[in-house]
Amino acid sequence: LFLGDGMGLPTISAGRFFAGDRATGKPVKYSFEDWDFNTVARTYDLETMVTDSASSATAYLTGTKTRTGMLGVTGAIKVKQCVAYTDAEKTISIVKAAAKAGKATGILSTARITHASPGGAFGHSAFRDWESDKDIKKDCNGENCTCVDLAQQLALDNMDVNVILGGGQSKFYPNTKELPINPSMKGEREDGKDLPRMWLKAQLDKGRKAAYASTIKEFNEINPKQIDYFMGLLAPSHLPYVLDRTPGEPSLPDLTVKAIQILQKNPNGFFLFVEGGRIDHGHHDNTAKHALTELVEMEKAINVAVSMVDTRETLIIVTADHSHSFELVGQPSRFESLLLWDKGYGPKTTDNKSMLPLIYMNGPGAKINETRRNVSEISK
């Protein structure tokens, strides 16, 4: 299951021309658009017309609608209700169901691995931001706060997940310990727990072939043939945007290849969740170039996965969890970059300030009583 976070139809529409051939004006067609089956999904939860990534993850990974901001628990729980959830209040994710059926399982994200979308694959939390014990204390601090943070749930309560790859290293280390991925930073846990060490020890105690990668070098040195359980936490927080990545840092296709190489050894098959999480972050930051570049990278990961499996017996789904207030508008030229100003409608603006083809807006006029920025000087 490939999840493009925030990858609504406007993102795909803009992405076709963003990655297209400007010499001919021909847009690309993403490979997954040309598959035999295509449909659309309705995204709403128990409270809101537009889901956040947490309630949507609970829906598509567990088949249960819940409240906005909650993961892996039913609507019987209230938001930020920090209690020990009963089995009746917990939902069952496809990851746990697949593991119970004897399949290998993996969770992979370019965001923090405890973030909302991957969190839906393993976690039970009345608030998506409770990624560490420190996070819980911001909302609940006392004897009645008996819920467990998402990092601890993943490391200690989900031992049968074979592959865990993503960012968020700071959520797993105590605030007294330097982060291996960046020694200038320390962890944020206040309970003193070194969760990766505890995870690895527990796996080895079970007699399993397991490994943990705390740095890029360690990740690159991992031999998938020699291990069956693998955790890699490859950034203090989210993995860097594609455009900000330094040489040697693994791409989403790299992560996908490593995960499949480990998982496909299971003769009973596997389930893998792959999130292109930074598409969403690019939109939240109102930087379309980041969002669309992340989309291009996710398609590469999808193509790699298709090449590694037998599609006659492997179902691959590509979807999004919600869209954004992002649009491709006006009459931009097919022969120029979408990142430049619109030369179709642009010269017709009444204030002579031109316009952009990619916009982020909410409501009539988007901004009230503010002077519109002049974008005419963007490279012509």
TrEMBL record:
Pfam families: Alk_phosphatase (PF00245). It comes from the Eukaryota. Its cofactor is Zn(2+); Mg(2+). It catalyses: a phosphate monoester + H2O = an alcohol + phosphate. Gene3D superfamilies: Alkaline Phosphatase, subunit A. Zn(2+) binds at residues 5, 280, 284, 321-322. GO terms for molecular function: alkaline phosphatase activity; metal ion binding. Mg(2+) binds at residues 5, 115, 117, 275. The active site is at residue 53. Keywords: Hydrolase, Magnesium, Metal-binding, Phosphoprotein, Zinc. Belongs to the alkaline phosphatase family. This is Alkaline phosphatase. It comes from Schistocephalus solidus.
